[in-house]
Amino acid sequence: MPSEDRPSPPRRVALFVTCLVDLFRPAVGFAAVKLLEDAGCTVTVPPQQVCCGQPAYNSGDRASARAIAAQVIDAFDGFDAVVVPSGSCGGMLAHHYPGLFDDDPAMKARAQDLARRSHELVSFLVDILGVKKVTARYDGTVTYHDSCSGLRELGIKEQPRRLLESVQGLRLREMKTPEVCCGFGGTFCVKYPEISNAMVSEKSADIAATEADTLLAGDLGCLMNMAGKLQREGRRVRVRHVAEVLADMGGSAAIGEREAKR
């Protein structure tokens, strides 16, 4: 029984799917649902959800970001927790929404409430729900990239590695610089393509030096950026979202690969 001064962990959870998961890698969303349900949560995917507004926010369009944030706040009202399989989108909800409403105390309070309830997926499992291991198998050597927003805004570093230790057959081999940006940065790679390409080239070489057969991370944008570079360079490294491996869903085609014909 939980003690009186230790509240029960949130169990009525809403999944913030993210645009990239919805449009490019729905398997990450299904993996997130499985992990949350295995941890005892009731999961809802609110159909009214929209983009978190980060592209507009990072481009200086505060009016559009504010309008988008208001829609998100409405869509996720009333849930115990909002869980996001992305450090960048999670950081947007948890850190940047309240400042969009500095001139509207009522909306600012609602944004602060959403920020308080918002969590990145693996951090939520480990830090909030106390999950110590998963039931999964992945036969291979993996390396893990620490995405910038997850690491620097949300403090996600040891949590995914802790759960990966429990995956049967998996061997983790660290990069020399796992915390260095891959060069994606959302709109950064569009505004500064030459710099972005130089950064992902260095990241690709660091990944290859580990001789791992699989690259994992917690942000799909970073993963798609690195997967594209690895493929263009002819490197035989499979790329997956960490949730897919933790949910024992690592048998499907990796990012950028075609599904086998049945």
Write out key terms for the chains shown.
globular, 47% helix, alpha/beta
Global outline:
globular
- The secondary-structure class comes to alpha/beta
The averaged pLDDT comes out at: 94
> Between the first and last Cα atoms, what is the distance in angstroms?
49 Å
- Largest β sheet strand count, sense and barrel closure: 4 strands, parallel
Q: What order do the SSEs take from the amino end to the carboxyl end, as H and E?
A: EHHEHHEHHEHEHHEHHEHEH
The total of helices stands at 13
The level of helicity is 40-55%
Low-confidence stretches: none
Number of strands: 8
Strand order of the largest sheet: 2-1-3-4
Task: Please render the helix and strand layout as text.
Blueprint (H helix, E strand, L loop, with lengths): L11 E4 L3 H6 L1 H13 L3 E3 L9 H5 L3 H14 L5 E4 L2 H10 L8 H13 E3 H8 L8 E8 L3 H7 L3 H7 L3 E5 L15 H4 L1 H18 L3 E4 L2 H13 L5 E4 H5 L16
Parallel strand pairs: 1-2, 1-3, 3-4, 5-6, 5-7, 7-8
Helix pairs in contact: 5-6, 5-8, 11-12
Write up what this structure looks like:
The protein has 13 helices and eight strands. With 262 residues, the protein is an alpha/beta fold. The protein has a four-stranded parallel sheet with strand order 2-1-3-4, sandwiched between helices.
Short description:
With 262 residues, the protein is α/β, with parallel strands linked by helices.
